[in-house]
Structures are given as structure tokens and as C-alpha cells.
Structure to design on (243 residues):
């Protein structure tokens, strides 16, 4: 059972990359069993933040606690699933061969292979070599790896990028189904229309969080219905100009 303490808790997180500060003191919590969207323009620091959550990013200072443990702790290895933006599956193996390999690395049960193939709707491509998959199938294969071992937290870096609207909708339905089972999902995107599908939003810009709340809360705060317009309103507000 998941407790009601935050699935992710970040306090004053600062990260530098290439000698430049890219995250400037982020503080937020992610409630368990929710779908949280991490949205913001390209280069604002989404990937860097997700890397810090899964423990592969050197941080300058601050605290990142994941499922009650410091980010990157060995105990989190099987409890956190991470799908990178660029697919991390082997091009010369089939989908099923990739999944069997990653399942053995993660010590996930072999039966997980069929389960995750079903969950991402990749039955038709199961025995296909990854190099021959379509872009949408490749994204699903990458996501399937992150689902191995039934993690409590899924960290997904732009999982819907380049997908057609039908596939995007199907993936968001999958995310919702996982959250209904108690999984926490942190999903980055730079497509604002995806924000409407989340329980909570973290809006980022230039290494800072502009807003942290529900889509309705954001609409109420800005007085704007469309979330893209609400985001622009917040940018204008924080830049000191009237929107
Ligand atoms: N390996 C690196 N070395 C130096 N700087 C980097 C490196 N990777 C990213 N950066 C810089 O860190 C900042 C944040 O990048 P990051 O990839 O986290 O942004 P993002 O919001 O995920 O962008 P996108 O949506 O395009 O993936 C950017 O200014 C980027 O140029």
C-alpha cells in the first residue's frame, strides 16, 4: 500500500550543467497515485529535473526524496521506472528480446514481458526487431521497459513526442489506468494541451517552477480557461508586465 506521504519531495534543488546553473532552487511535492505533468519550453530543465529524481544527475545542493528514500538509493532501483526521451532499447533485438533482457537485469518476473507488451498495446510488434518499428511503436517499446517490475513511480520524459493524436490519447489512458492502481506518474511534455489530462501541473521556465497546482487551480489563479494562455499569463506576471 502506498502511504499518503509524497511520492516525491524536492527541496531547494540546484543543478549546474556545463558550468552553468540550470535549476535554480526547485521545491515541490508529488502526491502518490497522481499523474503530474511537468511542462515547459524546450531547454527549461525538465530532463535535468527528471534525471535528478532518478538519481543519475549530479546535483549542486538541495534534497530529493523519492518514495521516502534519497533519490538514487539502491532500494529504489525496482520501485522507479524511467523512460528517457531518446529510446534506450537495442535496435538489433526484437521487442520481446529487449524486454526479457531488461527484465533479467531488473530481476523482474519473466511474466512481466507479456504484461507490459499488453499494457502498451504492442502485441503486434512483440517479435519484431526494434530497428523496424514505427516511431510510435518504438516509443511504446521504450515505455514498456519502464513498466517492468511494476514500479511505484514512473518518470517519463516526453513519452508522447512525435506520436499521432490517437496514440497520444491511448497512452494518456494507460497513464490514467496506472494511476488508478496507485502508481505515481511524473510525465514531461512541452505540449500544453496534454496538461488538461493531468491531476497536477508543474510549470517550468528557465530552471524555475512558475506554477504548481491543479489545472483548475491554474485556470482560477490566472482567470484564463485555456492552459496555454494561462501559462503565458504567468510568464507575463513573473516578468513584471501586465498580461
Ligand atoms: N550535457 C549537458 N551539458 C551541458 N549543458 C546541458 C547538458 N544537457 C543539458 N544542458 C543544458 O541544461 C539546460 C536544461 O536542459 P534540459 O535538457 O534539462 O531541458 P528540457 O526542458 O528537458 O529540454 P527539452 O524539452 O528540449 O528536452 C539547457 O540549457 C541545456 O542546454
Amino acid at each position: 500500500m502506498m502511504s499518503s506521504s509524497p511520492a516525491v519531495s524536492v527541496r531547494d534543488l540546484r543543478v549546474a550543467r556545463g558550468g552553468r546553473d540550470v535549476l535554480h532552487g526547485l521545491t515541490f511535492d508529488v502526491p502518490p497515485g497522481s499523474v503530474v505533468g511537468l511542462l515547459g519550453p524546450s531547454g527549461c530543465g525538465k530532463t535535468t529535473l527528471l534525471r535528478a529524481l532518478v538519481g543519475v544527475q549530479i546535483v549542486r545542493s538541495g534534497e530529493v526524496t523519492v518514495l521516502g528514500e534519497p533519490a538514487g538509493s539502491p532500494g529504489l532501483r525496482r520501485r522507479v521506472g524511467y523512460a528517457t526521451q531518446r529510446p534506450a532499447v537495442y535496435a538489433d533485438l526484437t521487442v520481446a528480446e529487449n524486454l526479457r533482457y531488461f527484465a533479467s537485469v531488473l530481476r523482474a518476473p519473466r511474466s512481466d514481458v507479456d504484461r507490459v507488451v499488453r499494457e502498451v498495446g504492442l502485441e503486434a510488434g512483440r517479435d519484431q526487431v526494434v530497428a523496424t518499428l514505427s516511431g510510435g511503436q518504438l516509443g511504446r517499446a521504450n515505455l514498456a521497459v519502464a513498466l517492468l517490475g511494476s514500479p511505484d513511480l514512473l518518470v517519463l520524459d516526453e513519452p508522447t513526442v512525435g506520436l499521432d493524436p490517437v496514440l497520444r490519447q491511448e497512452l494518456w489512458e494507460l497513464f490514467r489506468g496506472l494511476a488508478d492502481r496507485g502508481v505515481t506518474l511524473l510525465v514531461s511534455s512541452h505540449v500544453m494541451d496534454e496538461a488538461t489530462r493531468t491531476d497536477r501541473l508543474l510549470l517550468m521556465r528557465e530552471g524555475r517552477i512558475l506554477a504548481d497546482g491543479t489545472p483548475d487551480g491554474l485556470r482560477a489563479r490566472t482567470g484564463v480557461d485555456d492552459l496555454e494562455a494561462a501559462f503565458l499569463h504567468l510568464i507575463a506576471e513573473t516578468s513584471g508586465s501586465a498580461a
